[in-house]
Design goal:
The protein is built from eleven helices and 21 strands. The chain is of the alpha/beta class. The strands form five sheets. The protein has a nine-stranded mixed β-sheet with strand order 4-3-5-6-7-8-9-14-13, sandwiched between helices. It has a four-stranded antiparallel β-sheet with strand order 10-11-12-15. A four-stranded mixed β-sheet has the order 20-19-18-21. Helix 1 packs across helix 2. The structure holds adenosine-5'-diphosphate and zinc ion. Adenosine-5'-diphosphate (ADP) binds next to strand 7 and strand 12.
Length: 434
């Protein structure tokens, strides 16, 4: 068994659950006393702090939605004197107006420790050089990851996003061994290097922490092969601090959620009731230790499962599966519900497929037209027309099997699709645009 970063990492189920019960009662008490918004919500639901006796009582507490956070923007949910706040962050705004979260110094310390625990879990040590290739600024993947790597004692390089040439120079000059990177950018970086005649496998990188947006198992394998390094999935959202919420251990089979700090539930999005372990539902999260701006039962809109059974790594913090999609990402084509991840799953199985793709929904005058534009590797694009047509048909057929709608597949040249600054835009609804 690995050494622990701190005691809570290897707590037993009993320890975790006993602590959660105490902390849940505590957070409900604090918002009851400090937040008129939550006081009203709790009173309406007939919940008082005294009535919270065990973690099962969580189900009596009303949900908090993204719209609630927006309605309380910017600082209405803060329950400490504003002079105690030392930082604020925002969500990226992937699905609309961003939400803002403010932190006290203690909140930042706890967050950095949780993040350091994640990195330590996958074998990062103070001897590693850590390059953070994600955007800084309001986005939590910048300073949030940075603080964890520093806390662990890594020499931490705040490289920021983009600028492939500079990233590579830094990796080489400072012998970067661990990187934090968005999945979409990881493939772009690796393929660009190959196009420049370099071998990404020869770089000193041994581990990449990859998250902030959904990606499939096939996508992970591609990044691992391209760089000859281990890729660990990192999940977080600004409303729950940011990265550090869920992180894979070396088993690479599910993300442990640090339950001493976050209380996680998975509910049926329609009924709000808990689903069975193994069933897909919406992740709902409560901050158990945040001081400045606690949030109760936040509806993340992220769809996932709890993985039943104990992880061989010995940690008893619950594992969640890869995010299968955001409720907001789902689109309906010809009456069928489709997630972009289902499409990625299929196209990544074709070795001819390169590093980028884009799904669009158009109106061709007869109804919905689903178009999937796929970048093809440089070396495959020179093949003859017949081979390309064959590939196009095979991809379309496999997609039809998966999503039940026949898409139009366009094979396009490497580097012809737009490259995002931050999180990748995989889907565009062009219906109604002419
Ligand atoms: P936004 O919701 O505007 O993108 P955040 O920057 O707070 O703002 O990002 C949090 C969201 O990013 C999560 O709710 C989730 O949808 C997505 N996300 C983060 N990490 C992962 C991951 N490892 N896998 C899938 N989705 C992720
Ligand atoms: Zn584990």
């Amino acid at each position: 068994m690995d050494k622990a970063y701190d005691a809570a990492e290897f707590w037993s189920r009993d320890q975790i659950e006993a602590t959660q019960a105490v902390r849940l009662k505590n957070v409900v008490t604090r918002v009851w006393n400090g937040s008129p918004f939550y006081r009203k919500r709790l009173e309406e639901a007939g919940v008082t702090p005294e009535s919270i006796r065990s973690i099962a009582d969580i189900e009596r507490i009303p949900f908090t939605t993204k719209d609630d956070l927006r309605s309380q923007y910017p600082l209405n949910l803060v329950i400490v004197p504003h002079s105690k706040l030392v930082r604020m962050h925002c969500s990226s705004g992937t699905t609309g107006t961003p939400t803002a979260i403010a932190h006290t110094q203690n909140d930042l310390n706890v967050w950095a420790d949780l993040m350091a625990r994640c990195l330590h879990m996958v074998g990062v040590t103070r001897d590693d050089v850590f390059q953070n290739m994600s955007g800084y600024g309001l986005f939590t993947g910048g300073l949030g990851i940075h603080a964890g790597a520093e806390r662990l004692g890594c020499m931490t390089i705040p490289a920021g996003a983009g600028n492939t040439k500079r990233q590579i120079k830094l990796v080489k000059d400072f012998k970067t061994t661990v990187a934090h990177i968005l999945p979409s950018y990881a493939l772009i970086l690796g393929e660009r290097l190959r196009e420049m005649g370099e071998d990404p496998r020869k770089l000193p990188l041994r581990i990449a922490v990859v998250g902030a947006e959904p990606y499939t198992e096939g996508f992970r394998k591609r990044i691992e092969d391209l760089f000859d390094m281990k890729v660990y999935n990192s999940y977080g959202l600004s409303e729950m601090n940011g990265p550090s919420v869920g992180f894979e251990c070396r088993e690479q089979n599910g993300l442990h959620i640090w339950e001493d700090a976050y209380l996680a539930e998975i509910v049926d999005p329609a009924t709000g009731r808990h689903v069975q372990p193994g069933e897909v539902g919406e992740l709902v999260m409560t901050t158990l230790v945040r001081e400045g701006m606690p949030i109760l039962r936040y509806r993340t809109r992220d769809l996932t499962t709890f993985i039943p059974g104990e992880c061989p790594c010995g940690r008893r913090h619950m594992r969640m599966g890869r995010i299968v999609g955001r409720a907001d990402d789902m689109f309906i084509c010809k009456g069928v519900n489709i997630y972009p991840q289902q499409i990625e799953d299929v196209i990544m199985q074709f070795k001819e497929v390169g590093k980028n793709y884009l799904i669009t929904l158009e109106d061709d005058g007869l109804g919905d037209l689903l178009r999937v534009k796929v970048e093809i590797r440089e070396e495959c694009f020179v093949e003859d027309m017949r081979a390309l047509q064959g590939l196009q048909q095979r991809i379309a057929r496999r997609l039809k099997d998966e999503i039940l709608v026949t898409p139009k597949v366009d094979l396009v040249q490497s580097n012809s699709l737009p490259v995002p600054e931050g999180k990748a835009v995989r889907f565009k609804d062009l219906r109604g645009e002419k």
